[in-house]
Each structure stands twice: as structure tokens, then as C-alpha cells.
Amino acid sequence: MDGDVLEAIRAIIPRLRPAEVQVAQAVLDDPSSAVSATVTTLAERASVSQASVVRFAKSLGFAGYPAFRVELAQEVSRRAVELERSNIAEGELNPSDTPAEMVAKVAFHEARTIEQTGRMLDLDALERIAHAIAESDRVVTFGVGASGLAAADLAQKLQRIGIMCLSSHDTHVQLVHAALADDRTTAIAFSFSGGTIDVLHAVEVAAGAGAFTVAITNDTDSPLARAASATLRTPAREATLRAAALASRMAQLAVADFVFIRVAQLRYPDLDAALSATRAAVGAQHLAPRPR
Q1: Which of 114, 127, 15 has the alpha carbon at shortest distance from 61?
Q2: Mean pLDDT within 59-78
Q3: How confident is the model at residue 237 (pLDDT cuts 50, 70, 90)?
Q4: Is residue 179 within 8 Å of residue 187, measured between CB atoms?
Q5: 187 near 132, Cβ under 8 Å?
Q6: How confident is the prediction for the chain on average, in pLDDT?
Q7: SS3 sequence of the chain
Q8: pTM score of the predicted model
Q9: pLDDT tens digit string along 123-136?
Q10: What is the CA radius of gyration of the chain?
């Protein structure tokens, strides 16, 4: 498996059988104990059959339980090193944390999220998406809430290098943009869950109009991912009162940056002219630096 096995477990839980969910929860509750657990031990801990443990491992793409346990051991060891490197004992935010401890935990999770996102990125999908954007007459981005911020961020970056890109926080306007798409349009949708109805509807409308559609989501088997032409995963975990609750936004912004930079590379011959023109246009809006 390429990436974080614990995040892969969290992502696949909605598609597991009930007994396999019990195994997944047992592993997530105590990954270190799961590393040393035999099939029998883990089955007893999860109150399921040994066959359910094996099916759980295979659902994650492993040949069997031993291969899963090796990967889990590597992930637990890697996380211990990361925590030690960041000088924090654990990642949960607590009311008793000092400002220094809070900052360390948030910084740890956000940096780790960006590293995970880069490790697990589907580079073939990235290349396909970047070429589609670079060759499009128009790009539209969709997203609501925090995902809408990531959609607007990508749109602003693409505009700066001369790509016509439309973005709006108003979901009705997003539907207008979707309805006016055609086969020379790339539509990019951000949704952590992949189940946001407004965003899914916009993608369906854009696809019906002929656009090449992109889903940027945590769940590659979500309704949004299934509706899109291509998908990039944001492997982050949302959780209440944890530093990791901020990670989904960081993963989305990281993917937006990966897409933008690759598009900029593809349009390199025109890049300087576009950046110079946009820089000159906004330059007059800045006050001159005060003399020191």
C-alpha cells in the first residue's frame, strides 16, 4: 500500500461489512496493540470471526493479514518518530494545552497532512487533470464552506497565469457556471466527504453539458468521485477537538497547489507574460514602502 494505512482504514470504513468495521475500529482504537496481535487475538478483541479479520485486510488491498500487520507496524513506527521529532506526546488538542503545546500539535498535523497528501497523490490523475486545465477554454470551480475556500484559492491562482476561471461561493451561481459549461470546460469540485449535495449537483450539471469534471475529495468511492471524470484524494481526517480537524483544509489547499504548479509548468512559455501583466495591474493598488 502506498501511504498511511490508518488513514486508508478510516476512508474505507463506510464500505466495509459490519464485522469488518468492528475490526477497523479495534485497530484504530489501539494501533500499537494491533501490530503485535495475531489473527485470533484481533478477532477476539473485535468480537468477530478470524475470517472477518482476513477479509478486512483484503478489503484494504493486502494479500492477507500478515502483510497488513507489516504495513501497520511501519506506520506506527513512522508516527512515533514524527511525534518525537515534533516534540509532542500525542496529537489531540486538550483544554489544558499551553499555547506552545497547541501550536506544536497544529503544526505537526498540518505538516504531516501535506506530506501524506503528496505521498498518496495519484500522479497519473494529476497529469491528466493538469493537461485538461491547460488546454481548456474555461475552468470552473465548485465548493461550499471550507471547501469553497479551496475552490476559490485554485481559481485565483489559475487566473493569475491567464486561465479563464470562474468561482463563486453562491451555489446557485455555481449551477449557472455548470450549465454554461461545454466540452472545452474543466469543472473542478472540492468536497471532503464527497457527499455534499450542492457540489455533486453542480458536477452532474457540468458533466451533462460536456465538461471534463474533477473531484478533489477524501473518499474516492463517494458519489462525487463516481460522478467525476478524474479524482484526486485528500487523505486527511476530520475530527472534533483535534488538531487533525484542521487537516482537511490543508490537504485541499495542497492539492490545489499541486494542480496549479503542474498547469503552470505546462504553460511555461506564456507564464512570464501572464504574471507580469497581472502583477502590473495590481501593483498600483499597493502603497509604496515607507522609508526606513
Answers
A1: 15
A2: 91
A3: low
A4: no
A5: no
A6: 88
A7: CCCCHHHHHHHHHHHCCHHHHHHHHHHHHCHHHHHHCCHHHHHHHHCCCHHHHHHHHHHCCCCCHHHHHHHHHHHHHHHHHHHHHHCCCCCECCCCCCHHHHHHHHHHHHHHHHHHHHHHCCHHHHHHHHHHHHHCCEEEEECCHHHHHHHHHHHHHHHHCCCCEEECCCHHHHHHHHHCCCCCEEEEEECCCCCCHHHHHHHHHHHHCCCEEEEEECCCCCHHHHHCCEEEECCCCCCCCEHHHHHHHHHHHHHHHHHHHHHHHHCHHHHHHHHHHHHHHHHCCCCCCCCC
A8: 0.76
A9: 999 999 999 999 99
A10: 22
* Contact in structure between 182 and 209 (CB atoms under 8 Å): yes
Kindly state the percentage of the chain with pLDDT values over 90: 62
Do 130 and 259 form a contact (C-beta atoms < 8 A)?
yes
